Amino acid sequence: MEIIKKSEKISSLIINSFHIKDVVLADKFKIDRNILSISTKNISNLIAEEKLVSNIDLKIIKPNNHNLQINTIMDIIPISTKVLGEIGEGITYTLTGVYFMLTGIDKSGRQISDFGSSAGLLKDKIYFGRAGTPSQKDFIISFNVTLASGSAINRSGPIAIHRVCDQYIQLIRNVLKNLSANKSDEKHIFHDKRTPSKKRVAIIKQVAGQGTMYDNLLFPDEPSGFKGGKSIIDLGNMPVILTPNEYRDGALHAMT
């Protein structure tokens, strides 16, 4: 007689969400009473460390204030960090109500884009309220990077932009790590399971890996981060298997 086994848990992921109701400029990074305070003091150091970066302009965009001019959008980045374990398991803290918007241009005025630029009015360039985009009610931290002239068309230029933005976001992640889970606004638990009696299902997702603006990272150190990530280009565009929780936890950082 065939024995039908029950579902077996492989790993678990806990995501604690902290909702942000306001974002302000301050002398230091802080998260307190649903207010995120960010600082510009470290920006000069970030520029000095990246020889291709000429300038960084940081701006807080308040909800429903989207009738403003922007350079081409390179990424919309959530603010999340690992508190315990690696990507896809353990504990992750994430902020809701706020996203980073990474934009770029070079000193000659060339937009950091490949097949098409998204420069223009912000309200016309983002489809708000979709998976991976902020809602009309969210705060947006605009992180606009200016590259040295001629750097926009080389892979090293956009990579430098992503790296310097990730270094800045890490300053917020370091504060987020120290929050108490008891103060989170939501807690979600996700289990990766193996059920021998059911069919095995794989979802195929094809991502770009052509260079410059068309790159994707796998398994960064932090959820949706940059540091430690492996480029799909450097992996030879070969297939990579992700568990549902790895995907959910930001193991794939789309940089296209």
Strand order of the largest sheet: 8-9-1-13
Number of helices: 4
- The CA-CA distance between the termini, in Å, is 52 Å
Radius of gyration: 19 Å
Q: Write the element-wise H/E pattern from the N-terminal end onward.
A: EEEEHEEEEEEEHEHEEEHE
**Any low-confidence stretches, pLDDT <50, length ≥5?**
none
Largest sheet: number of strands, sense, barrel closure: 4 strands, mixed
Classification by helices and strands: alpha+beta
Strand fraction = 25-35%
What coarse outline follows from CA principal-axis ratios?
A: globular
Question: Whole-number average pLDDT?
Answer: 91
Characterization of this structure:
This protein is of the alpha+beta class. The protein has a domain at 15-190. Helices cover 14% and strands 35% of the residues. It has 4 helices and 16 strands. It has helices at 43-49, 122-125, 156-176, 244-248; strands at residues 8-19, 22-25, 30-32, 35-38, 53-61, 69-70, 72-77, 80-84, 90-96, 98-106, 120-121, 139-147, 186-194, 216-218, 230-231, 252-254. It has a 4-stranded mixed beta sheet, with helices on one face. It is globular. 33% of the residues are buried. This is D-proline reductase (Dithiol) PrdD. InterPro entries: D_pro_red_PrdD, Gly_reductase_pB_sua/b. One of its GO terms (molecular function) is oxidoreductase activity, acting on X-H and Y-H to form an X-Y bond, with a disulfide as acceptor. Pfam families: Gly_reductase (PF09338).
